[in-house]
Structure formats: C-alpha cells, structure tokens
Amino acid sequence: AAGRSLYFGGNRLRSTQVATQVVLNVPETRVSRLDNGLRVASEDSGISTCTVGLWIDAGSRYENEKNNGTAHFLEHMAFK
Description:
By secondary structure, this protein is of the alpha+beta class.
C-alpha cells in the first residue's frame, strides 16, 4: 500500500522511493539478431555476472492433432 515504510540497512525509505529506484536502475535491453536469425537480448548491469535464458516459440499454442501434448512432455523431461 502507498506510504508503507520499508527498512533497508537501517535507512527508512518509502515504498514509492524504493520502486522508483528499482525502475531507474534497470539497464537498457539491447536486442540484436545473429546471421542465423537468432535474436539475442543483452543488458550491461556493470557487474561480473551472467544470466542466460532461452525462449522458444513453441508450446501448446503451436500444437496440432498430430503432436498434441509434445510440449508438455518435453517440459517434464527437461526438468527431471
């Protein structure tokens, strides 16, 4: 709720101030395309870390009667 106080490291901050700071600290996302058509989204956070995510235009919305349930099955196999 608006006006609720939060405590971080002994400093009292308003929730709106915290939310504003979070939004201002989000690095710009750059999207580039490789020669093979793969799109790559990258952000420079200024720290020595790397996070990789993979999104594929696949899933039940792309299935038909012949391959119905395939995406669900592969999801379970990937996270076993």
